[in-house]
Automatic annotation (TrEMBL):
The keyword Cytoplasm applies. It comes from the Bacteria. The gene is ureD. It is found in: Cytoplasm. This is Urease accessory protein UreD. Keywords: Chaperone, Cytoplasm, Nickel insertion. The keyword RNA-binding does not apply. Belongs to the UreD family. UreD, UreF and UreG form a complex that acts as a GTP-hydrolysis-dependent molecular chaperone, activating the urease apoprotein by helping to assemble the nickel containing metallocenter of UreC. The UreE protein probably delivers the nickel. Required for maturation of urease via the functional incorporation of the urease nickel metallocenter. Its main location: cytoplasm.
Length: 252
């Protein structure tokens, strides 16, 4: 605890052994960022983030780093939604996610929703570095306010690079402090749940995905490189998850 907020970090690294089975030589977490190994029926390593205490609160600084070494397969999820709450300081909380997928590796980053509670302020930064021939499936879901309450202030930036080249760099801001229009017809149009699905895989460089609508709530956009982006909005978390799950099915 320093400067009115909590500092905590978690690090996960998967490495493939001689048989192609992924192991977890690094699995460390502290404070609210507890990490647990999950039983796997295949060669991949599976990990869950476990919320061990209320966080992020105002002023907190949390960092999660997940790495898939050469040829490794790593699946990361969480056991419950993350709720951003007001703290004793008016400073925003910071939640930084750093993902690294090395050559011929695969990382599936599929946490539960992030809920921006009334009165909270959170800045989320997600950065993914993907090596040539590697694969990434990344899902982000944000819910603006708990049931029956207005949202807090949420700023989220997502950056994805492949082989050192930028595939995606986008930022959104929601809540009372966001620029006007964030909830208007050209943006969320009154919806309170929004999410992104990023897919990076080498075959998309040769056969890019086709731009298309996915039902009434989601749209697929090819990226300039071996990737695609699905963006979705929905009235609530349940319909958002259904839309993104359907997107996973469509893109294979």
């Amino acid at each position: 605890m320093a400067g009115g907020g909590l500092r905590a970090a978690a690090r996960i690294r998967a490495e493939a052994d001689a048989r192609g089975i992924s192991r977890l030589p690094v699995l460390d977490g502290e404070g609210p960022l507890a990490v647990r190994r999950i039983r796997s029926a295949g060669p991949e390593a599976r990990v869950a983030l476990v919320g061990a205490m209320s966080a992020p609160l105002g002023g907190d600084r949390l960092t999660v780093a997940a790495e898939a070494g050469p040829g490794a397969r790593l699946d990361v999820t969480s056991t419950a939604a993350t709720i951003a709450l007001p703290g004793q300081t008016k400073e925003p909380a910071h939640y930084d996610v750093r993902l690294s997928v090395e050559e011929d590796a695969e990382l599936r980053w599929l946490p539960e929703q992030l809920i921006s509670a009334h009165g909270s302020a959170l800045q989320v930064t997600t950065r993914a570095e993907v090596a040539p021939g590697a694969r990434l499936l990344l899902r982000e879901e944000q819910v603006l306010g708990r049931t029956g309450e207005p949202p807090g202030n949420l700023t989220s930036r997502l950056t994805v690079r492949c082989a050192g080249r930028l595939l995606l760099d986008q930022e959104l801001a929601c809540g009372p402090a966001a620029p006007s229009g964030w909830d208007g017809p050209a943006a969320l149009a009154g919806h309170r749940a929004l999410g992104q699905l990023v897919v990076v895989r080498p075959e998309l460089a040769e056969a890019p995905a086709r731009p298309q609508l996915l039902g009434e709530l989601a749209a697929l956009t090819p990226l300039a490189g071996p990737g695609l982006l699905v963006t979705a909005v929905a009235p609530d978390a349940l319909r958002l998850r259904r839309a993104l799950d359907e997107a996973v099915r469509v893109v294979g």
